[in-house]
Amino acid sequence: MTNLFKIAIIAAPLAGLIFYYVVMQQSKLDTEIEKESLKFEQHWNEFKAESPFTQDRQKYQSRAEQAEQKQKELEQKKKEKEQKIEKFTSDFEKALDEVDKQQGK
To answer: Which whole-number Å values give the CA distances from 18 to 31, 34, 62, 84, 97, in the listed order?
Structure first.
C-alpha cells in the first residue's frame, strides 16, 4: 500500500506537467490555424478588390489590410508561445532528471 502511495505522489506532478505541455502544444496549433485562416481571408479580399465585377473595392481592400495586421499580431503571439514552450520543455526535462535521480536513490 505504501508503494502505491509513493507512486501516486510521484505520478501526479508528472501527469500535471504532461497535461500542461499538451495544452501548450494545442495552443500553438490553434494559433497556426488562425494564422492560415487570416492568410486566406487576406488573399480573398485582395482578389475581390482587384476583381472587375466588384462594386465596393475600398471595403475589400480595408478588410485585406486588417487581416494583414492581425497576421502580424498573431506572428508575435506565436513567437511568445514558442518561447514559453521552449522554456517549459527545458524545465520539464530538468524535472524528469530530478525525479530519475530521486528514484535512483
So the answer is: 20, 24, 43, 15, 15
Yes or no: say if 48 and 60 are a contact pair by the CB < 8 Å rule.
yes
Q: What does the pLDDT look like over 67-102, one tens digit per residue?
A: 999 999 988 888 887 888 788 888 878 887 887 788
Record the pTM.
0.63
Give the Cα separation of 25 and 15 in Å (integer).
15
Amino acid symbol at 63: R
